[in-house]
Hints:
This protein is α/β, with parallel strands linked by helices. It has 10 helices and 20 strands. The chain has helices at 29-38, 62-67, 81-93, 125-135, 156-165, 228-234, 255-263, 276-289, 330-342, 359-367; strands spanning 2-6, 9-13, 53-56, 75-78, 102-105, 114-120, 139-150, 169-171, 178-183, 198-201, 213-216, 245-249, 268-273, 295-300, 312-317, 322-323, 326-327, 343-354, 371-375, 379-385. The strands form 5 sheets. A 7-stranded mixed beta sheet has the order 5-4-3-6-7-9-8, with helices on both faces. A 7-stranded mixed beta sheet has the order 14-13-12-15-18-20-19, with helices on both faces. A two-stranded antiparallel ribbon has the order 1-2. Helix 7 (255-263) runs parallel beside helix 8 (276-289) and helix 9 runs parallel beside helix 10. The longest helix is centred in the C-terminal third of the chain and has 14 residues, at 276-289. It is globular and about 65 Å long.
Amino acid sequence: MNRLSTSWGAYDLTRFPEDPRDQLRAWSAADAYLLRHLAGEEDADAVDLSGTVAVVGDRWGALTTALAGHARVPVQITDSFLTQQATRANLARAGHAPDTARLLTTRDTPPTRVDVLLVRVPKSLALLEDQLHRIAPAVHEGTVVVGTGMVTEIHTSTLELFERIIGPTRTSLARQKARLIFCAPDPARAAGSSPWPGSYVLPADSGAGAGLTVVNHAGIFCADRLDIGTRFFLKHLPRARGGAHVVDLGCGNGVLGTAVSVADPDATVTFIDESFQAVASAEATFRANAAEGAKAHFVAGDALAAVPQGTVDLVLNNPPFHSHQATTGATAWRMFSGARAALRPGGELWVIGNRHLGYHVKLRKLFGNAHVVASDPKFVVLRAVKGGS
Length: 389
């Protein structure tokens, strides 16, 4: 837990899932800079927060929690299930009732009118583009639009998106390696519609994925082509036993689970990701390729927390090793631990990762075994089997 101090008060904030050993903060200098600006501490008048305030891309709920007592029911729009859970916990810790903020996902319909638009710049330029397009109709001439991010996160292309979709844009001076973006809405601007989602067909050299149509909503990793790790995994994908329950964990666009379903239509595939955009992509990819009557579930959640223990035959996993800009192995460990609990005795976890990440060490600690299925100079596919009977 770490404390964010503002002129409105101090807030003890945590990420989700909460881990007392986690050294990563639940807020950044960019969040603090934006809050100081809103409160009138940065050589400008305080911003009127009495209208509808929308917060796009809030990370862990720091902005929403600080605003909850000072804005009229701020609306958070996030692509992250984990951020939503963290926001609920941080609001409660600050003494706010659940109805003091409205939590929406990137797949929900945004408010029809926004008087103050606050944007925490995401890592994905495509996600920023899509979200600006979705909320632009709610912006009017008097809307105050302020973005924020670390200096390393704000590029010329970032500013060009604000300029093209919303209106004239400028930036602030840097403070503690953070910067603000000021955008003046231009009602006459015809920004067009979002180019997302997009799709492409996998080439013949894509192993079990050959010929599949892949659908990507904005923000999905390698949205315009298959990433090389997934391509390698598809060439070594296990065949599900008839009627097996397979989980595509951290599913992204769902190509792994979809390939399993196409190869074995009797399998039941559960697609899980913490990204709402990813789950929507996985469902679209599955619907575009799977046989009629094929069984699938689509879950936005915290790894395998929602899957009953001992009910899964096969878990496929390409774990992320970044949390926003920070490198961390905590997500992989949580996924591997959850997989062990969810698998039936004899069930298998198949993992792909960069060789240098050393996932075999974690798997041997959890499962007592880790078998190399395939490797190349960059990637390794590992198989761990749950013991017991």
